[in-house]
C-alpha cells in the first residue's frame, strides 16, 4: 500500500480574507478617477499589531528595573517620575542599556549570528505569530491588510528605532506566514528614534526631539514624498492611525499645517483604542469628528480614506 503523506498547511485566520481576495478585484483609491490617491500612514505597535516588546523603567533609589508593555507606556508615560504609581521611576535613553533597548537593533557578535540571534522586532513578531490571531492583531490590522491588498501607498511611522530594513523584514514575516497577500506598497518607513533617521531625515541631529515631534516631521516628509512620487493633485487623501493620545494630538497639529499648505487635499487622523476608534477630519483651524465606531467597523469605514 502506498502511503500518501499529506503536508499540513498552515491557514492563518486572514486566509479567509485572502481567499475572498482571490475572487475580489482590488479597489481603486476613492478619488482615483480624479487622479487622487489615498495614502495610509500607520503607527505599528498597538495599532497594527500587539507585540510583547517590553519598555524598561528604573527605580530612582535602587536602579531596579520594571518592565511596562507598550500599551501601559502609551497610557502612563507622562506620569513617570512625576506622579502616581510611577513617581519614583525614571526613563533612561541609552540605546544599549536603557528603557528602549529592545526597540533598537542590537549589535550582534559573530557568535550571536552563529546561534541565529535575531533583532527583537523579528523575534517578537515570530512570538506573536505563534499566538491566536485575535491576541496580536491590533485595531488597525484590517485597515493595514486593506491598504496592502489594494496597493495603497503606505507609510509605517513608528517610535521604534530599528533599522528600516528590520521593520521591512518584520512585515515580510507577515507575508511569509500568509497574513498579508504581499508586501505593502511602501511610500516610506520611519523608525523615528533611529539615530541615523533622526539626524539625516528628521532634522534632529542632537537627538533632542520627542517621539511625537519626530512623528510630526515623519508625516510632513511622507506627504512631501507622496507629492513628489504621485504628483501634486488636489484630490489626494491622507490618513494616519495611532493609539497614543499624545501622538494623536501632535499628528493633528501637523495635519492642520499641511491642510493650510494643501487646502484642497483631505487629511484624517484615526485614534485607535482597544475596541474602538475615532476618525477625525483635520481642517485648517479645527477638527471635525467624522466617525466613531467599534473595532469591527474599521475596515469598512477606512475604505473611505
Ligand atoms: Mg502605538
Approximately how much beta-strand content do the residues carry?
A: 15-25%
Average pLDDT number: 88
Unreliable sequence segments: 1-11
The ordered string of helix (H) and strand (E) elements is HEEEHEHHHHEHEHHEHEEEH
Biggest β-sheet, characterized? 7 strands, mixed
Overall form: globular
The first-to-last residue Cα distance is 58 Å
Helix/strand-derived category reads alpha/beta
Assembly category:
single chain
Helix content: 25-40%
The molecules bound to the chains, other than polymers, are: magnesium ion
Roughly how many Å is the radius of gyration? 20 Å
Query: How are the strands of the largest sheet arranged?
Result: 6-5-1-7-8-9-10
Salient structural properties:
10 strands, alpha/beta, 35% helix, 305 residues, seven-stranded mixed sheet, three-stranded antiparallel sheet
